[in-house]
Amino acid sequence: MKSELLLVLVLSLCVSSKPLSKRRTYNKLLLISFDGFRWDYDQDVNTPNLDELVKEGVKAKYINPPAITMTSPSHFTTITGRWIEDHGVVHNLMFNDKTGLRVPHKATLKRSEWWDNGALPLWITAQNQGLKTASFLYPGGGVNYSGQAVDRFLVEDHGQPDDETEWRQNIDTVMGWFTKEDFDFVTLYYGEPDNVGHTFGPETPERIKIIEQIDRTIGYLREAIHKNGLTDHLNVILSSDHGMTTVKMASEVNEIKLSNYMSLFNLARFDLLDYGGFGMITPREGKGQEVYDSLKNAHPNLTVYKQEEIPEHFHIRKHERIQPIVLLADLGFNINSRVILHINKGDHGFSNEEMDMKMIFRAFGPDFRDNFLAEPFDSVSIYPLMCKLLGVVPEANNGSLSDTKDMLVDNFDAGGSSGRIKVSLSLLLLMIIILTLI
Ligand SMILES: *[C@@H]1O[C@H](CO)[C@@H](O)[C@H](O)[C@H]1NC(C)=O
Ligand SMILES: *[C@@H]1O[C@H](CO)[C@@H](O)[C@H](O)[C@H]1NC(C)=O
Ligand SMILES: *[C@@H]1O[C@H](CO)[C@@H](O)[C@H](O)[C@H]1NC(C)=O
Ligand SMILES: [Zn+2]
């Protein structure tokens, strides 16, 4: 009788020894983006560390970027879960077609008015729900949203070096944020393999080399996670923003040069051309139809849309920053305006339906299954997954958790990955054993 009473007492003690806070304990999350990491870049390179992650984590064969396959638009879709027409970051440049303003990509990283259009990125939402978040060079992480900044951020301002030592230091810094400062969510950005893909082209020994460097960096990351005691407390999602394809040159094809078909000076008030496979033109007053007619059948590998003709499934049409004429070139055909410069041997900006624009997705950590191959999905669905992992109530978004929820361990919703609950369960067992012995 006495020991039964004691058992009840101990039982209630064990129950109340669960975390007192209303949130159950969620693991931390690191989102890493390697810019321009095409989905198949690991297939012709020796990548022991990425291979290891297939066994010890989740791999999607590939994932789909949003329809403007460019750095800022795509990264902002990942961090907001919104289509481009809903978040408004429609280009790498900040621009104003009325004033002719063009702000280069690096400078946009400090301009709130380019990013802050009403769609709240996850950093801010998570902070508003009590979490600590940080951005290490991730596009959009360095500006204010409704007046609010990310708790800790570093902004890319000197062109990102491909120095492997610096890459490792960046990982050490992020590990310190998690362990010494108890950050919950950090985004980490690397400018490779995009730079190498542009400069040398994707099908080159230089690209192979940079993928080997990235693979070593992932190995370093895994060691660092282990050394910092984060193995059971940190989930990692590794992805990108778009792929890369070889630019087709004159010896092989008839390159696109718009000035062959129309006078840009006479017909256009503003344009965003010479950025890979995607371009926009703002016609002069009353010249819209003339621009359209001049380009519509000009080149077999150029598709021309009036804004209202853009297929809905691209999810770009609705935004006011989309200009009246939108151009999309076939894979590998750059949209040149007045001269063909051949600065880039590789490029992106092409349709997100092209396999060369698809990107990598990997994930590992305590809440992810081992050896799980996920079906391809839209990158917009990374957002609800991240919210679920962090226990954050998501903003309205265009992603779907049904794309990604199977990646999680079976008992995720039961809180099975929470260390503290496991401890109190084993404590309970121990108590019962002791009591039955009394
Ligand atoms: C963000 O807001 C702070 C405080 O008002 C301000 O000092 C800072 O310059 C702003 N940053 C940007 C990028 O606008
Ligand atoms: C370019 O256009 C031609 C004619 O329509 C087509 O046969 C070819 O496949 C196109 N090239 C690409 C890369 O789509
Ligand atoms: C995307 O999400 C926003 C916010 O919920 C919504 O207003 C919009 O209609 C959605 N877009 C599509 C195509 O469903
Ligand atoms: Zn990019």
TrEMBL record:
Q: Name one Pfam family in it.
A: Phosphodiest
Signal sequence interval, chain numbering: 1-17
Q: Which UniProt keywords apply?
A: Signal
Q: Which InterPro entries match?
A: Alkaline_phosphatase_core_sf (IPR017850), Phosphodiest/P_Trfase (IPR002591)
Q: Report which superkingdom the organism of origin falls in.
A: Eukaryota
Q: Can you say what this protein is called?
A: Ectonucleotide pyrophosphatase/phosphodiesterase family member 7-like
